[in-house]
Amino acid sequence: MEVEWQKFHFVDGIDVFLFDGYKFSSHPGLSARYPFTYKRAVDILRDLVESKISVSAAARACIDMFPTEEDGKEDGRGLFGHFLLTMAGQIPYHHHGQAKLVRLIMCLYSSAKFGKISEATLGKGYPTFYSMDQFQISIYENYVPDLDESEDRTPGDPLAYNLNTAAFYARLAQAGFPHMSCYAVAALSDGLEETHDEPQYPQYADDLYVSLASLWISYAGQALYTQLVETRPEDDKAKKHHYKLGKLYKGPQFGLERWTFWKNALQRAGENGKAREQARKLAKRAGDLMEAIERCTQEA
Predict the structure, then answer these.
(1) Of 45, 210, 220, 241, which sits with the fewest C-beta atoms within 10 Å of its C-beta?
(2) pLDDT tens, 188-239?
(3) How many angstroms from the chain centroid is the CA of residue 54?
């Protein structure tokens, strides 16, 4: 299956990359000393997703594009993280390229150039990584679904970008990328513990939110079960806030009761004849997976 990439726009003679309403440009002087350009970055990611190069080769190519810290910090690595996120939203949620991109990000995250903890956040309880801080900020700013019906991001299917991005976030969570479990719970709470019949929601809102919740379970269900039911987060205000309850659920924040509430909601959605076929299939698969995770864990 080939990925239908959105058309990219590059300004001739200047490393400026126009994409999805954002303008990316490399730091002045960077391209003169290092082989970084957004065009080269696009080529690397395309080759990775299309299986023309390996994950390790792509990671090395990305790392080699940037200077060391001694050469200067203003090198565009922060925006590069946001660039990775915008690219991920174009890869279909069921495409193997998503898994490859997650592996690439985990490689960068563990590298010396991309993985240093930011001094600005040390001691504040939310350490981010020097070169991945903008990536994490971008995740925070974009994890809420875009309800705009515009097809600019994924022509032909206005829901696709949201579904692709949710699956990508879930894959990151399963891979162990920091702080992702909070977004998983938010997605399940928004999708299954709230109603979507208010005027601000489009007609397809129920299908969208059920599909997003289903994808989180499909690609990060085991990690979520471990976090929510088995280990549970520390009892502090920040994590209680992120694990907030929706209006339809009245039980405890952590534990099997909430997991069961989500499972039952997805199983009902999988049998909802009024829902779109895609939403029903995703919900049924996720409900069955939750049942299997719960059963296997208890039997063990």
Answers:
(1) 241
(2) 999 999 998 888 787 888 899 999 999 999 999 999 999 889 887 665 665 6
(3) 21
Q: What is the chain's length?
A: 300
Q: What percent of the chain has a predicted confidence (pLDDT) above 90? A: 36
What whole-number distance in Å separates Cα of residue 39 and Cα of residue 281?
A: 38
Q: How far is residue 139's CA from residue 22's CA, in Å, rounded to a whole number?
A: 15
Q: CA of 81: how far to CAs of 62, 234, 291, in Å? A: 11, 29, 35
Asked whether the beta carbons of 286 and 214 are under 8 A apart, the reply is yes
Query: For residue 23, what are the β-bridge partners?
Result: 18
Are the C-beta atoms of residues 20 and 85 closer than 8 Å to each other? Answer: no
Compute the distance between CA of residue 102 and CA of residue 237 in angstroms, rounded to an integer. Answer: 30
Look at strands 16-19 and 9-10 and give their pairing: antiparallel
State the pTM of this model.
Answer: 0.83
Place of tokens 């969570």: 173
**Cα 279 from Cα 112, distance rounded (Å):** 41
Q: Give dist(CA 67, CA 94) in Å, integer.
A: 35
Could you give the CA distance from residue 131 to residue 119 in angstroms, rounded to a whole number?
A: 12
Both structure tokens of 190: 């928004």
